[in-house]
Amino acid sequence: MNSTTEQAMLTLYHYDRSTAAQRVRLGLDEKQLEWRSIIIDTAIGDASQRPENFHQLNPKGLIPLLDHKGFTLPESTLILEYLEDAFPDHIRLTPSSPQERAIMRLWMRRIEEGIHVASRTIGVCIVNRYIYKETDKSKLANYYAQMRDPVRKNNDQINTDLGLDSPLLSPSLLAFKNLFHEMNAHLETNSWLAGETYSLADIALVVYLTRMSSFQMAPLWKDLNYLCDWFDKIQNRAAYHSAVTEWGDITAEKRKTEGLAAFETVKSLWNAER
Question: How far is 47 from 28, CA to CA, in rounded Å?
């Protein structure tokens, strides 16, 4: 529930289509918390819109960033868990049983174990490279100069230069293929990722199906029926509508066009024997 009032205790620095920002907005809206929005688009190859002190708030210079009465916290999964601890009287998004909480955290670990990096690789190879190539060169140079993560910077430059020929694309697609198959198998006997409770794990990972679908890649997993049903259930939740759908995507048309153009190449890599 986005609040524009100055009295809002929570301020979120974010932008529309970021998967990390989407999961935080989902957590906020599922818990029915009021929050104030500050847009900082860190994915358009232009760092000029960032506040001068933004690197003091988050040394990586990335979003999302949560400000709770002066306490600032980066990293989307940490923000989700913080919201659970800071607002225990609001709707709970962690299971009550220790076993289900452990399963929830195992699924969430997949983000740090490489799936988020894989998501960015796919996005840059298919779409962002064209956005960057259309960006003023001086702005793009400043954008990279402010990128504090050397691995992210190196990967971006490789993927921007080589696109669908990037050596990083195939292993990134394989990571998603494996994840989606594992999720589908788990969901065959469980209502949600943590078991019978909708949780932070579902919020944390659903955004990647949103991202891949925006690239017109949904046919790749159309036979994973339990995964598709799970995605449909979440898309029909009120919080998904307010936290994801209503925020839209300023690059939606570019994602659709470039995704369709890339589909056959991506499909070939997806289906390749491993």
Answer: 26
**Residue written as tokens 């988050």?**
58
Domains of the chain: 10-86 (3.40.30.10), 98-271 (1.20.1050.10)
pLDDT at residue 16 in the model:
94
Compute the half-sphere exposure of residue 27: CA atoms within 13 Å on the CB side of its CA: 32
pLDDT digits (tens, 9 = 90+) for 33-60: 999 999 988 766 555 667 777 777 887 8
Pairing type for strands 35-39 and 10-14 reads parallel
pLDDT recorded at residue 4: 44
The closest alpha carbon to 49, from 14, 25, 11, 10, belongs to 14
Query: Which CA distances in Å does 24 have to 10, 45, 57, 184?
Result: 12, 23, 17, 24
pLDDT of residue 6: 37
Helices (H), the chain: 19-30, 54-57, 76-86, 98-110, 116-123, 129-133, 137-145, 150-162, 169-187, 200-214, 225-235, 238-240, 252-271
> 50-82 b/e with 16+ CB inside 10 Å = b?
beeebeeebebbbbbbbbbeeeebbbbbebbbb
pLDDT tens digits, 112-169:
999 999 999 999 999 988 877 777 777 777 777 777 788 888 999 899 999 999 999 9
Question: Is the pTM here over 0.85, yes or no?
Answer: yes
CA distances for 224 relative to 10, 22, 188, angstroms: 38, 23, 10
Cα-Cα-Cα-Cα dihedral sign, residues 249, 17, 125, 160: positive
